[in-house]
Amino acid sequence: MVKRSIGAAVFALAGCGTTAGVQEFQTYATAFSSVVEASDSVLNEMAAEERVKRIRVIDAGAAGGISDTLERKDIPIFAPSADPPFVASMRFAVHSVADLNDILLAYAEGRALDGLKADAAGLQEAGLGFRVTDVADPAAKAINAELEILGEVLGFASGIGSREAFRTELIKAADQINTVLDVVLGQSTTAYRTLTSSEFRALRGSTAAQADQIRQDIATEREMLSEWLYLIELSQDALNQAVAAASSKPDQNTRLVEAAVLTGDLRARADRIKRLAAQN
Q: Which of 33-37, 45-49, 145-149, 192-196 has the lowest mean pLDDT?
């Protein structure tokens, strides 16, 4: 996917007296809210699968079939209320982008700088220093590396006193959104294998009669995950439209449908993801 930048969009949104791109940026923010709305249905199921898989690895070969140690790094794996590493990274990426969208949208709408500084500082304190880079999971490391950059940008932005300087740093943070989302999308195979690990394990030991149902279960989970990832891609398309509008260079051949239609479509897709999750 071509990397998209919203730096120009945010610059135009924040410019003196201009509202170019504001509506399109609002559409993008609404689009991404559908991603967030559907994320729990996907990620909660994925977390349960990741937990089972990681516990199986930890206990493999242990006397009595269960490990007699509990390493600190493994606490989230055994705690049902916590996310294991890969899902933790995916969930944190989604919610960090959503929170940053809120800050950028507030800035685009001309709200007070002091409030935005407080929001940026709070977002960083909430965990944009998030690290599980010592884990062996390369997918989690890839996502976390981008989140750490986002955290560093916001850490600097939260201490800036000049509106112009603060805007410049938020532009940098906005550019980073696309990189974070591209990294998440790039983990599609890891996400799919994590989500369906138990089913594929059952499939290997199944009878011919059982195999058809297991394959159907896998297909349903693949569809649910694909819908969610497609929502992320659609949100990036909406973001690209905000870039074009804010730059006063809208591409009429690729312009998205009107905001109300797009929003309705995304909401319907989010509801479908929830229905697919309920089938499992």
A: 145-149
> Could you tell me if 242 and 21 are in contact, meaning their C-beta atoms sit under 8 angstroms apart?
yes
Q: What is d(CA 155, CA 129) in angstroms, rounded to the nearest whole number?
A: 9
With 0-12 / 13-18 / 19 or more C-beta atoms within 10 angstroms meaning exposed / middle / buried, residue 201 is middle
Instruction: Give the pair of three-digit tokens for residue 11.
Output: 């610059």
Residues, the chain, total?
280
The values of phi and psi at residue 158, to 5°, are -70, -20
Of 142, 151, 158, give the one whose Cα is nearest residue 190.
Answer: 142
Write out pLDDT tens, residues 149-169: 666 655 555 555 444 444 455
Q: Please determine, for residue 49, whether its predicted confidence score (pLDDT) is greater than 90.
A: yes
Between these two residues, 224 and 5, which has the higher pLDDT value?
224
DSSP the chain: ------HHHHHHHHSTT--TTHHHHHHHHHHHHHHHHHHHHHHHHHHHHHHHHHHHHHHTT-GGGS-S---GGGHHHH-TTS--HHHHHHHHHHHHHHHHHHHHHHHHTT--HHHHHHHHHHHIIIIIT---TTSS-HHHHHHHHHHHHHHHHHHHHTT---HHHHHHHHHHHHHHHHHHHHHHHHTHHHHHHHHTHHHHHHHHT--HHHHHHHHHHHHHHHHHHHHHHHHHHHHHHHHHHHHHHHTT---TTTPPPPHHHHHHHHHHHHHHHHHHHHT-
Which range among 18-32, 78-92, 221-235, 240-254 shows the weakest confidence by mean pLDDT?
A: 240-254
| Contact yes or no for 206/214 (Cβ under 8 A) | yes
